[in-house]
Structure formats: C-alpha cells, structure tokens
Amino acid sequence: MGVVEEMMDGVAGMAREHRLTREGPYAVGSAFFEVGQYEPVWQAVRTVAEGYAARGELIVGEISGGRITDSGTSSFEVIRGRFAELYIYEEAEAVFIRLYHLSSKEREWVALYVDDNKETPWWPREERGGV
C-alpha cells in the first residue's frame, strides 16, 4: 500500500465522498468532509506523513485564506488550509498534500487533495542509488 492509499484509508470513514486514481507511477486522492472534520482529517493525514518522514523530509505550512480560480472564474473562497510536502528519499517519491476549508455562496466544506509522484526527477539517479 502506498502513501495515498494509506491517507485515503485513514479518512474514508469521515468522508462524504472520496476517490483514488492511479495511472502508472502517479496516484491522486481526493476526499470531501463536513467542516467539523477539519482537525481530525489533518491529524489522520499528518500521522501517515510523519510515518514516512523518518525516511525523508516533511514540510508543513498554514494557509490563512485565499481564492480558487478555475478557467479564469473565481470558484471558491479558501477560509483556511494546510499543505504538506513529503519527500521519501530512497524511493525518490514526492507527495503533495492540501487540506482546505472552502466556501461558496451556498455552503462550506473541507476538501483534501493528495498527489503522489513515485518517479520525481527531484534527485539525480546517482544520489538515489540508481533507483
């Protein structure tokens, strides 16, 4: 099981909706929650990330607000959020995690997005042991 699968499994019971898509070395997970699930979702995702961070690097940041613009049109407001970058050195793997508390005119919700690239060229082959 990979990072995205572990994260999606960890939050599936809280999610209104979730999905996982795999194509070649790439995996993408998304899930949507009620606003009250923001902290429990973050804790579940961070626990998985920290388990892998012993073999790499974990960068975490806070988002204090913003806007999502899709195809030139403002779609949603970002009320708050968190992001994390997880690099697993031996596998030359890069995982990007975003958790957003979003709002539209009609409602508010929490969205989780996780992207996993198992073949990132971030490190030269010589540095990753020929992987």
Give short descriptive properties of this protein.
single chain; 131 residues; alpha+beta; 7-stranded antiparallel beta sheet; 7 strands; globular
Structural class assignment: alpha+beta
What global shape is seen? globular
Number of helices: 2
The biggest sheet, with number of strands, parallel, antiparallel or mixed sense and barrel status, is: 7 strands, antiparallel
Rg, Cα atoms, Å: 16 Å
Low-confidence stretches: none
Helix content: 10-25%
Q: What is the total domain count?
A: 1
Average pLDDT works out at: 91
- The N- to C-terminal Cα distance equals 19 Å
Number of β-strand runs: 7
β-sheet strand percentage: over 45%
**SSE topology string:** HEEHEEEEE
Question: Layout of SSEs?
Answer:
Blueprint: H1 3-11, E1 17-23, E2 26-33, H2 38-53, E3 56-63, E4 66-70, E5 73-88, E6 93-103, E7 108-117
Antiparallel strand pairs: 1-2, 2-7, 3-5, 4-5, 5-6, 6-7
